[in-house]
Write a structure and sequence with these properties.
Elements lengths: L1 E3 L5 H11 L1 H7 L1 E5 L1 H9 L4 E7 L14 E8 L1 H7 L8 E6 L15 E6 L4 H13 L4 E5 L8 H6 L9 E4 L1 H10 L3 E5 L6 E2 L9 E5 L8 H6 L2 E4 L11 H15 L4
Length: 264
């Protein structure tokens, strides 16, 4: 294991760029995973690693974890250097650079009994992470992101999901492409939207295969989804409140769909 001691090292310069720049992550098809729990989930999700960086005081703590295929090298970082590169405020002792996946719709293989989450135009990495954490807990079969507004491998999405972004099959495409895919797969489209024909979320049966489609908190779903939906759903709220947090709303629908299908 080679020890690095200079921030000017090319490997560390690349690590910093991958942390900070979505453009660099997209160009290189690489991203950063920080933390043992997150790295273990990435391994479980079938991700490959290019390099791994370990705090010098923890060089002997990850022997089991390091029994993975790493393209290049495993490095030990001096304390000050590791803390400069970490975004986790000293709570973690390991950082990895991993290869991203393509996330094409054609690669998404779904069962006839699938319940999937579709998120249109998510912007906040923290919200995306929270959605994945809940989707994994609720045993959702897959996630589709339509018209993404932020990089899927944003470090804040990974951190807020506690690595759950790596556990769920994911596809990324335009809304038009996603709708075509759902219809070809004969997946029922249910949308969270205020509409005259909407019914309360707990009155719907969620017969699979079924897609739960969520829009943004500020603007809701694009009208294209409202034109193609099979059923609009609403979550009753107090009159004083006009909206729920996206991850909370999605969590309610995900757990209700699984409850109706006796998944727990």
């Amino acid at each position: 294991m080679k020890t690095l001691s200079s921030i000017q090292n090319p490997e560390l310069k690349k690590l910093r760029l991958l942390h900070q720049k979505a453009r660099e992550r997209k160009k290189s098809h690489l991203f950063v995973v920080e933390g043992e729990r997150e790295i273990l989930k990435a391994i479980k999700g079938g991700y490959r690693f290019e390099s791994i960086f370990i705090h010098e005081e923890a060089s002997g703590d990850f022997e089991d974890l390091l029994d993975v295929d790493v393209d290049n090298h495993i490095y030990s970082l001096e304390t000050d250097l590791f803390e400069r590169l970490s975004i986790r405020s000293g709570s973690e002792k390991i950082i990895a650079v991993a290869h991203s996946k393509t996330h094409e719709l054609a690669q998404l293989k779904l069962k006839d009994t699938a319940i999937i989450l579709v998120i249109e135009a998510p912007e906040k990495p923290g919200n995306i992470g929270a959605l994945y954490r809940t989707a994994a807990a609720a045993k959702i079969d897959a996630v589709i992101i339509a018209n993404p507004k932020t990089d899927f491998y944003n470090p804040n999405s990974i951190r807020s999901s506690l690595g759950c972004v790596f556990l769920l099959p994911t596809a990324i495409a335009t809304s038009e492409e996603v709708i075509t895919f759902l219809k070809e797969q004969k997946i029922t489209i249910t949308t969270a939207a205020i509409h005259p024909n909407a019914i309360a979320y707990d009155q719907y049966d969620y017969s699979p295969p079924c897609a739960l489609v969520m829009g943004t908190e500020s603007t809701g779903l694009d009208k294209l989804w409202l034109e193609q939906t099979n059923q609009n759903l609403i979550i009753p709220m107090a009159k004083e409140v006009d909206s729920l947090n996206l991850s909370v709303s999605a969590g309610i629908l995900m757990y209700e769909s699984q409850r109706k299908n006796n998944r727990f």
